[in-house]
Amino acid sequence: MIRAAAVVAFVVTAVGVSAAPVPPPTEKELLTKYWGKTEGQGEFELAGKQLTVRTVGQPARGMLYGKNANMPRATKPVTGDFEVTVKLGDATPPNPKNQHEDSWPGSRAGLIVSGDGYSIEFHLYQYHTKRNGEVLDKLNRVVWVDTWFPGGGAGGSREQVPVGKSTYLRITRKDKTVSVSHSFDGKEWSVPHVPRQDLAFPDDVSVGVFYSHSTYQIATATFDELTITKPKAEPKDAVK
User: How far is CA 203 from CA 74, 131, 191, 200, in A?
Assistant: First the structure.
C-alpha cells in the first residue's frame, strides 16, 4: 500500500508541473514576422500572410515630404545585396471628387527601399489629371518609379497597367547597382531598369511595402507573396 501511494503521488506531482501551453502569436507578432516593422499613419490587417494597409481619411504622404512622410509602411532591415518581390493585389483608386493635396488626386502602392536620405519607391501609381483646374474623370494607372536623394528627386512611368490586373514588383540591389522590374503574372518580367546610377545607399537599408495617398478618403491596398532573398547568381557561361 505504501508503494502504491508513492506511485500515485509521483504521477500527480508530474502532472502538476507540466509546462503550460504556449499561446499562439499575436497579430502584431505575425505582422512583424511576415512584413516587418509598421510605421506611419494607417492601419494594418493580416489575412493569413496577406497584408491590407488602410489609410485613415487623411493624406498619407510619401518620401517626397522627407521627415514629414507619414504614409503607412512595413519594412525589414536588409544588409548588402538583395532582391525583394511583392504582389500588389488591389489598391483603392483616388476619388476624383474628393478633396486632395498635391497637384491632383493620386495614390501609390508598392515597394520601398530607404537609407541615409536615399530611397526608391517602385509602385502602381493611380491618378486623375486636371484641365483648366478641373479634375478629369479618366483614371490613369501606371507602373512608376521615384528616386529620392538629399536635395532632390526624380520619377518616371514604366508601363500602363490594365484595370483588374495584379501587379508584381521587384527591386534588386547587386554590386551597388539598384534596378527595378515588374510583371502582371509573376512569371514574365520586364527587362530590369536602373532608375539612377548615383544612389549612394548605405550597406544597411530598410526594405518593404508602402501606401501613399493624396486624398482625404479611407483607402486600402493589399499586398501578398513578399520575398526578400539574395540576387540569383549569373551563370558562369553568361554572355557579357
Answer: 19, 44, 25, 9
Cα–Cα dist 16/38, whole Å: 41
Query: Going along 96-193, which residue ranges are E strands?
Result: 106-115, 118-127, 130-131, 134-135, 140-149, 152-160, 167-174, 177-183
Q: Is 234 exposed, middle or buried (0-12, 13-18, 19+ CB in 10 A)?
A: exposed
Contact indicator for 71, 60 with CB cutoff of 8 Å? yes
pTM of the model: 0.86
Residue holding cell 526608391? 120
Amino acid in the structure at residue 148: W
pLDDT(33) > 50: yes
**Domain layout of the chain by residue ranges:** 26-229
Tell me the backbone φ, ψ of residue 179, rounded to 5 degrees: -130, 160
Of 64, 175, 80, 52, give the one whose Cα is nearest residue 112.
Answer: 64
d(CA 76, CA 125): 23
Segment 160-199, tens digit of pLDDT:
998 878 899 999 999 889 999 999 999 999 999 999 888 8
Distances (CA, A) of 151 to 23, 64, 147, 148, 177: 48, 11, 11, 8, 21
Question: 26-229: what fold?
Answer: Jelly Rolls (2.60.120)
